[in-house]
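User: My collaborator sent over this chain with a note saying "see what the structure looks like." That's all I know about it. Can you take a look?
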Amino acid sequence: MKTIKDSVHDHIQVEGVARDLLDTPAVQRLRHIKQLGTARLVYPSANHTRFEHSLGVYHLACQALDNLGIEGVQAERMRAAAILHDVGHSPYSHTVEELVYRHTGKYHDDVADLLVDSTVGGVLRDHDLDPDAIAGLIAGEGELGQLVSGELDVDRMDYLVRDAHHTGVPYGTIDHERLVHELTFIDGELVLAEGNVQTAESLLVARALMNPTVYTHHVTRISKAMVQRASERLLDAPDVTADDLRRMDDHDLLVALRTNPDTTEYARRLSQRDLYKRAVWAEMDDVPDEVVDADHETIREFERDVAADAGVDPEHVVLDVPGRPGMKESSSRVIVNGEVRPLARQSTLVRALQQVQHDQWRLGAYAPADETGAVGAATERVLGLDTEGALVSKVRTGQRTTLDDFE
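Assistant: Without extra context I'll predict from the sequence alone. Here is the result:
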């Protein structure tokens, strides 16, 4: 057994297969991937890693297994899945995940290939555990897979509390001890026991408050978009593949960007926090549906058209169009008067938060500070934005230097 001091859960005891997995290269790599990607450019103390988070998920999974009375091989499989659940992450956490998926067809929880023929696979087999079965649990398959990848998973419980702790933002604080204690299985579904509607709602409220404050803060989004653009250019180089990118850590990617002539400037800007600025920051109701629903290639075409209209280098225009908002947690199930009900059916708060998500949605157009005026005007023309919208940038009017004056 190994005891590790954790900033969130205090002392975590790691034993069995998890203890042997801890020092494998795949798990140790997570020490070099920041949990919040580029959010540390907003919150200087947000330097916690996927390694710390994996320990936290393991700790909460162990508590859940004890409370559910799950023991033996089933429990050991779950403990392995918990400590390994993030080994598939690319550098900067979720930042380049969509890029990697477009090239490889794999998201961060598609880890079967990483477990079978590796040191991790050897450790699992030494403990009589099937790597494919562990990969299935990480992907959320089966009844127990819901514990690490589902609407009420311990992954979410840890990252909300941990991200709040390390950013200093209190909105992610939830009663994770109660959440873990109140989990139960009904007909193969993971649900919260009777009397826990408010407990489930707390997850939604925490996420709704953390989103604009941390996860989708405009500086986080700008820097994330710049990492994505730089990584796309990096893959144009003959000596870097998407599989290479997938297995890099944060340091590897930054070094690769610095050494490639086509991405050196992005690396400099990211290292020195000399970021692009907002030229447009538009609400969903001010953006045509065909823009909201545009795929990656269409958005890139829009960028080229905006650059041509503005008379700037195409590399100086980045359009950031989030997907339509969704609330996975609203399908969480709770027991009410002895009946299992979806939270969305039971809670009027869910419907209010769904409206909040719509109201928080923003399309961003980013450019170097001295080009935001031209790019903002061109973006409005090319995309057909409603220029009467309250948050569509008017930087070119001289009313303010940049939208980023409004923090």
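A starting point for your reply to your collaborator: The chain has a mean pLDDT of 92.
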